[in-house]
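Long-time lurker. I teach an intro course on protein structure, and each term I like to show students one example going from raw sequence to a predicted 3D structure in token notation. This year I'd like something fresh instead of my usual example. Would anyone be willing to generate the tokens for the chain below so I can use it in lecture? Attribution to the forum is fine with me.
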Amino acid sequence: MANDSICVFCGQKPGTFRSTTVLCGRYMGRGEMQKTCGVFSLNLTASLLIGTLLSAVCFLFPGQVADALGTDAQLRLPLIDYIAGFAVGIVPQLLAGQFASFLQMERQDRLGYIGIGAMMVINVVLDVLFVAVFGMD
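-- Reply from a regular --
Happy to contribute to a lecture. Here you go:
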């Protein structure tokens, strides 16, 4: 439940920026590649800026975010740690969602699978790094 609440709080549920994929599909269908590139660039820039802002807020003020999510006293400390750890992945999650939708639209399935594989490897490496090296268990 905490993950869903944090995702909603961070605007990471389906629908965020998804309309740009539709708009790009229309422009591609009309052969207007200049507009397609412009919308795609705007989408990635907005995702990066919003993701960076949300990451900073969640990393710097996890207690206030936990309070805003309505946590109870028993779960507050574990949720604060979770929010701080989750903050590290907000930007990659937002960008991965955007790239996945555009790769699907372009029928670039192979690149999508490569991206999923890379995310899996990075996830395992960072899990080991954070737990074994930094002691964040």
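Some talking points for your students: The radius of gyration is 17 Å. DSSP finds seven helices and no strands in the chain.
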